[in-house]
Structures are given as structure tokens and as C-alpha cells.
Amino acid sequence: MWAGFARLFVRTAIGLLAGYLALAYLVDPYDSGRSTLLSAGAVRQQGPRTAAASRGRDPAFTGAIFGNSHIQLVEPARLTAATGIPFVQLSVPATGPGEQLALLAWFLRHHPAPKAVILSVDEFWCTSDPALPNEKPFPFWLYGDETLVYLRGLLRFSVAQEVVGRIGWLLGPRRKRAAADGWWDYEPDYLRLGDLDGERFRAAREAPVPDAAAPGQAGPDFPASGRLGDALAALPAGTAVVMVFPPVYAAGIPRPGTPRARAGAACRAAMAAALARHGRSALVDGRRERPALHDPALFFDQTHYRHALARPLTDEIAAAIDRLRRAP
């Protein structure tokens, strides 16, 4: 009797698991395009880590921005207006090179000949760990090309909740939609935290950085540069690529001649060399010395800046793209 019950239990469990996987695959909770049966042509409100699956495959966009919150205020609509290229913002806060390269690969899988790619390269790219570890959880399974890996990803409890949520969203009379182009303005969120002149923001801005190189970023090897170079070398010759070193508040820039300054310079040189593997490319150095980097009114902390700095940066990127596209 117990043996029969055990067999029935196993068959039932397998049936339920198979049924759930079939349902989850058809529902496609993050609109990754693996199943288009219930695709709504819109992005359900969710975090950018998963929303990029839908945005990154949207054929309406032929240009994309990659990075983290250090490039998040570069507004895709402003770039589109200046260049004529429909841009999508695919930056994801608290990510580094591993996650961003995965997102770049996802975008290129669905846009094999994009008109423009913008890459923000910050200190996270300077890791000496060839594994390019991620500090925060990231759904690599969602952006891979292996079906079995994707199916295993669907078995997560949080994903099962999203399956239910997406079904409710699809059936609901009023679907709340996220911005199609991924624009997420963090400035109001920061301003709600208090006065820019208050102690909280002042301490975050003015703390001097150590002279010693950051742990794990001393070089001399920066393996992310090799993987980036390989990705850029494979792009079509007509794609304009702009690498951005995002702005850093003056107090956050290492003193010249220190180990930290030398390591940072070596890292940026390695990234510039990776960029050079694609002929139609340009570098926009937001770290270059200028009065704006000394203005505390333009920064929330040492690496998160305001619209008054983001807009000129966006215009500079657009001008670089225009020059690249006009070049023979």
C-alpha cells in the first residue's frame, strides 16, 4: 500500500511540476519573448533587473544605454531627440561588468545591428577577479540562451509569484505600465531624503577616498576589459559605440600619484584599449577636471549626480554619436 502511495505521490508531484513549468513558460512572466502567446507589447511595472528582458528585445529601439545608477540619469528621450536614434535605458542599479555584459549580449541577440551603444564604465569594472562577481542578486538565467537554465529559473518562488501577478495584470481592465524606454529619474527619490546641505549628503560627498588602491582593484590585470573588447569587436562596423567614464565629485577622485590613482588610471586605460577594438567608437570622460566636479549642488554623493550635470553629459554623448555616424 505504501509503495503504491509513494508512486502516486511522485507521479502527482511530477505532473504538478510539469504543469507549472508549462504554464510559466507560456505566461512568460518577464515578457522575454520565449513565448509570445500572452505578450501584451508593454512592460509591466517591475524592477529594471527583470524589466530589461522586455525592453532589451523591443524592436522599437535601435540604441541602448548600459551601466548602473551612475549613468541612470542619462535620459533616452533626450538622446533620441538629439540623434534621431530611438534609445532605451537598460542600466540597472548596483550592477557591475558581469551583469552589464549579460544585458549587452541580450540586447545584441535581439538587435544584431544596432545603430548605437552607450557603455558606462565605472570603478566596478576595475575588478581583478576574472569571474566578474556580482554583489547583488541578478537573474542571469533570464538573459541566457539555454532553455534548461531558463526552466530552472522559473522554479523560483519569486518567479511563481510573478507568474500569478502577470496573469492578473493581463486579465485586469487597467494595466499599469512602466516606461517603455526604461527612464527612471532618481533625483526626486534623493531629494525626499533631505536637504542637500544637510549632514547626510555632505558626509557622503566630502569624505576623502583612501590613498591605497581599492581591494581587488589594484590590477595590473582587469579581466572585464578583455570580455568587453571581445563583445565590441564583434559589433557591426556601422554601430556607433560611446564609452562613458561617469562624473565623480572632486572629493571622490584620488590624489595624484597615489596607488589608488595609478590603479584607476591603469583600469581606464585598459577599458579604452577595449573600446579601440571597435573602429567607430568614442570616449566621453565625465571625470575630466572642470568646475562642475567641485560643485556640491550637482551631487548627492560622490558618484550620483543631478540633472544639471546629467543633461550636459547626455548632450556630449549625443554629439559624439553624431560625429561617429558622420564619419566615413
Short description:
The chain is an alpha/beta fold and 328 residues long.
Question: Can you put this structure into words, describing what you see?
Answer:
The chain has 328 residues and is of the alpha/beta class. The protein is 44% helix and 7% strand. The chain contains 12 helices and 5 strands. The chain has helices at residues 2-27, 48-55, 76-83, 97-110, 140-143, 147-153, 157-171, 187-191, 199-206, 223-233, 259-275, 307-326; strands at 63-66, 87-89, 116-120, 240-245, 281-285.
SSE map:
Elements: H1 2-27, H2 48-55, E1 63-66, H3 76-83, E2 87-89, H4 97-110, E3 116-120, H5 140-143, H6 147-153, H7 157-171, H8 187-191, H9 199-206, H10 223-233, E4 240-245, H11 259-275, E5 281-285, H12 307-326
Parallel strand pairs: 1-2, 1-3, 3-4, 4-5
Helix pairs in contact: 3-12, 4-10, 10-11
Which short descriptors sum up this protein?
single chain, 328 residues, alpha/beta, Rossmann fold, five-stranded parallel beta sheet, 12 helices
Name of the CATH first level? Alpha Beta
Largest sheet: 5 strands, parallel
Shape by Cα distribution? globular
Strand order of the largest sheet: 2-1-3-4-5
**Taking all residues together, what is the mean pLDDT?**
92
Low-confidence stretches: none
CATH architecture: 3-Layer(aba) Sandwich
How many individual domains? 1
Total number of helical segments? 12
Give the CATH superfamily.
Answer: SGNH hydrolase
* Number of E strands: 5
Describe the oligomeric state of these chains in a short phrase.
single chain
Fraction of residues in H or I helices:
40-55%
CATH topology: Rossmann fold
SSE arrangement, N to C: HHEHEHEHHHHHHEHEH
Class from helix and strand fractions: alpha/beta
Global Rg: 22 Å
Termini separation comes to 79 Å
Approximately what portion of the residues adopt beta-strand conformation?
5-15%
